[in-house]
Each structure stands twice: as structure tokens, then as C-alpha cells.
Queue: 2 jobs
Job 1
Amino acid sequence: MAKQQPVPQLRTAGGIRYELTRKRVKNLNIRVREDGTVAVSIPLRTSAEAADRFVAARAAWVQQAQARARRRSLQDARPLPDKETALAHFTAMSDKVYPAFAGVLGGQKPTIKVRSMTSRWGVCHMAKRQITFALQLYNQPEAAQIYVVVHEYCHFLQPNHSPAFWAEVAKLLPDWKARRNLLK
Ligand SMILES: [Zn+2]
């Protein structure tokens, strides 16, 4: 019977450095922390070699999660802009997208607003003909910002996230998925 190790063991598999802990768990678990370090927990009787294989099989996924964590920490280090700066920025971006939606909007530009939001990047209020962008979006990659602008505009065509909605997004941004993946 394997002995429980209270201190995580540092191991490397598939080019991934990770901390291995044995716990009273049923399955092997892997987690990439906010700081990019990797924690793996395995059942008491599972061998370290099985953990290595488990990690190696998920190396690509771990690397992606680590890249995301790196981007996130860089973005968090950047201060948020003031509201006027962000509003001018998103209004200019919105003005470029607007012509494609001028018809459905009856030739009237939507009102653009900015406020601090941590749970979403944008909100479209169709009845008010208004889009609100998260101040935090300003620090995201520009390619992803454009995706959010197009996404919110497409809600003037489709109020939900139905396949028809995504088809509208794809018409303007065929690479919308790659752009969305840039968002933290
Ligand atoms: Zn949406």
C-alpha cells in the first residue's frame, strides 16, 4: 500500500513540471493555478508513473492554461484606463462596426457606455439601443475587443446565443472563436 505523502512531490512529465499529492480521492485531478504552477492529486494507491502519463497526455492543455495565466497576470498588472479614454476608444471601434447594422438599427447609432464589470465584457440592451462595455475590456487584445463589439451588435439581430446568432457573428468575423479565446 502506498504511503501518503503530506508534502507534494515535484515531478516532470511531458515537459510539464508539476506538484504531486496523494489524497483520498477517486480520480486523478490536474489543476493549473493562477500563478501557472501545476498541481496534480491522485488516489492513495496510484503510482507516480501513472500520474506522469496522466500529465503527459494533457501537456498541450496545461501549456494553454499556463499561457492564459501568464496573459492574465500581465493584464492585471496594467492599470485600468479612465472612463473617458475607454469610452472614446470603444465608440471609435463601435463606429467601424455600425455600418453593417445600420439597417436593423434604423440608421441610428446605438448609445455606447462603459462601466467596470468583472463578470462580462459587454451588455447589449436592445430596447434602449444601447451597448455597455466593460472597462476591463480595454486591457484585452484588440482582436478580442473587436469580437466583443461585433458580438454585442449581433444581439440587435438575435437576442439570444442561438446558432442563428453565432452565424451572424461568423458572417462578420469568420475567426471569432480564435478571437474569443484571447479573452482571459
Ligand atoms: Zn451575448
Job 2
Amino acid sequence: MTFNVTADAYDRFMGRFSEPLAARFAELAQVQAGQRALDVGCGPGGLTAQLVDRLGADAVSAVDPSASFVAAVRVRLPGVDVRSAVAERLPFPDDSFDLALAQLVVHFMADPVSGLSEMTRVTRPGGLVAACVWDHAGGSGPHATFWRAVHDIDPHVRDESELAGAREGHLAELCEAARLTDIEPMSLTVTVRFATLDDWWEPFTLGVGPAGAYVARLDEAQRDCLRSRCVRLLPPPPFEIAASAWCVRARA
Ligand SMILES: C[S@@+](CC[C@H](N)C(=O)[O-])C[C@H]1O[C@@H](n2cnc3c(N)ncnc32)[C@H](O)[C@@H]1O
């Protein structure tokens, strides 16, 4: 899926979940000073910033196919080697990095096994490859309430649950297929607070990701109906949403 949206729209919709996740994911990846790291599918740079904090900008590279996100990372994180590229064709020689990470990206890759294989190729033997994807299939992703409301209205709409890595164990299967070793499946949960219903709903209207693309296809009456259904399913504001991601840590 393409992300032809501004970094600001992404931050408001997904960044509020992916930034706290990035701090936890960098811990899980055991990032240590002196390493060289690659952030695959960096978006506007939430995880990249965590890597820069730990390693310094000179030791961090990042790729993403979205022109607006690549431009945002160049401005936000000067000194990072950020390039326009997809995981399936990484523009780096073999064994370039000590670790390669993909946060919330495997499910958007056209070919996840080939993307993970490329991450393995550019990581030195014994280096670390890690990935995570929201638990969309288990109903504990950040947009579970949204998709429940969508299905209450139209049970035939395809949500994100069938995407690669979004069900328990699937990331590990993909890593095995990509010939990674010492595969350790794990999970992470983050909690985000919403002050008002509009604080929660308005970002869905920005066209970001599969949920945003779905809302963009609705007319005004359909949007109002969906918003009302969501309001009935959500707790009264202020409320917190917990979101869990399946993670995998493995060796190249
Ligand atoms: C949900 S965002 C995650 C961004 C960032 N990693 C984060 O955690 O906030 C998914 C990102 O994957 C990128 N993407 C989509 N297909 C990709 C591919 N084949 N290879 C690398 N990145 C891809 C998108 O452009 C987008 O920036």
C-alpha cells in the first residue's frame, strides 16, 4: 500500500501509537552504541529517531518508498542516510549493518519474504533482524474498535486482519522462509490516551493507511453513520486505547 500523505497526517493518525511502540521496539532489538542500523519502511521517522538517540545520526540509515516521508526524515533527522527504496530491493551492499529493523512495515510489503531476505542480506552474519506488525487478527491492534464498527455496518468489508504478520506466529513463519535463525517471537503493548471523541475520530479522515483509505471512500452520510457506531463502542472520553503488536527478533 502506498502512503501518499503528509508526515503531519501520519503523525496524527499512526504516529501517536508508533512513537511509543518505537521506544519499546528499539529496547527489544537491544540496540547498542557502536552499531550500524537500518530502519526499513521508516515512515516519518519515529523509530529512526530512537536509533539516532542511541547510535548517532551517522550510524543510522533509513529507507521508505513514500517521497513525503523521506523528505520529512531528511528535515527531522539531519545526518541520517535516508533513501527512497522498498524492502524488497535495498540499495546497500551485503553485510552493511549490525541490525535491520522494520516497524509496522512487513504487512505492507508486496513480498514480505523477499523484504525480510533483503534485510538479512544487508545485515552482517550473526547481526539482528527484527520486525513487528499490529495484532490486527487478534483484535488488539490500534484500530480494533474502528473495524468492529465497520463490520457492524458491513460485515463484508476487508479489514487488516489478513495482512502478512498480523496474526500470531506468522512473522516467525515469514522469518523462517527468509532463512533467518534463532527466531524469537514476542509481543509489545502500548497505551495511548484520547482526550475527546474528535481527538480519536478526526485522524481517520486524513486518508492514512487502510482505515483512512476506507473512510475516504465513504460519502458524508456513511461517514456520520460509521462515526456514530464507533461512538457507541468507545468508552466515554477521556479514554485510553491499548494496542498490541506481534514482534520477532532473529539472527541473520
Ligand atoms: C505504518 S507505516 C510505518 C512507518 C514507521 N516504521 C513507523 O513505525 O511509524 C508503513 C510504512 O511502510 C512503508 N512501506 C510500504 N511498502 C513498503 C515496502 N515494500 N518496503 C518498505 N517500506 C514500505 C510505507 O511507505 C510506510 O512509511
